[in-house]
Design goal:
- By secondary structure, the chain is mostly beta strands.
- Helix content is 0%, strand content 55%.
- The protein is built from no helices and 11 strands.
- Strands 2, 4, 5, 6, 9, 10 and 11 form a 7-stranded mixed beta sheet that branches.
- The protein is globular.
- The model has no long low-confidence stretch (mean pLDDT 96).
């Protein structure tokens, strides 16, 4: 499985960014796709994931500010991030699970004034 991520960048607090990721090469229709992030010096943790059946998991810290959605036909996922805070800063990794975990290359999100 290959994961092609795009988006990220630097934004001021209160701003918005969108991340997108396209998965290709999986032989399994049922899967979970989404995003994890790793703040500087900390572990990688869940941001949001969405399954093929539409089930969504959010980090409680982002619920109400971030929205995840997917296109099942294209196996793509997007994460709309609004009301960004400095603590949202980190490296964001696209995540894909069919019969095993797959990780994309990280993309940097920096929220700073």
């Amino acid at each position: 499985v290959q994961l092609q991520a795009s988006g990220g960048g630097m934004v001021q607090p209160g701003g918005s960014l969108r991340l997108s990721c396209a998965a290709s090469g999986s032989r399994h229709y049922r899967n979970i796709i989404g995003w994890y992030r790793q703040p500087p010096g900390l572990e990688r943790d869940l941001v949001a994931t969405i399954a093929t059946d539409g089930h969504i998991n959010y980090d409680p810290a982002v619920k109400g500010r971030f929205t995840i959605f997917r296109d099942n036909a294209e196996n793509t996922v997007s994460l709309q991030m609004n009301s960004l805070k400095p603590e949202d800063t980190g490296t964001y990794y696209c995540y894909f699970f069919d019969v095993r975990r797959w990780w994309g290359q990280g993309t940097q999100v920096t929220v700073s004034s």
